[in-house]
Amino acid sequence: MNTPPxxxxxxxxxxxxxxxxxxxDDQHAQCELLAAAANYMFYGATCDVxxxxxxxxxxEDDLLPRQYRIDNLVCAASLICAEIARLQRLK
Length: 91
Description:
By secondary structure, this protein is an all-alpha fold. It has one domain (about 5-90). It has helices spanning about 5-20, 20-25, 30-45, 70-90. Helix 1 (about 5-20) crosses helix 4 and helix 3 (about 30-45) runs antiparallel to helix 4. The protein is globular, with a radius of gyration of 13 Å.
């Protein structure tokens, strides 16, 4: 049986949170998390070359892409969750 997508995203988000704390994410106020998510979505859709309509990947290039399309989409969703949490902390 396949793992439900929400569980995959939650697991990836936990992995990211072990490596990057909220203070780290708060330093990325120029849409870096969303730019990274856009790139992962691009890889999840096409598995092609870096960049989505000229959006540069803002972090280390060796992190992108992952081998499987689903992994790229899960990472994109996790980065979107991290951006939502960052915006919530601003309130």
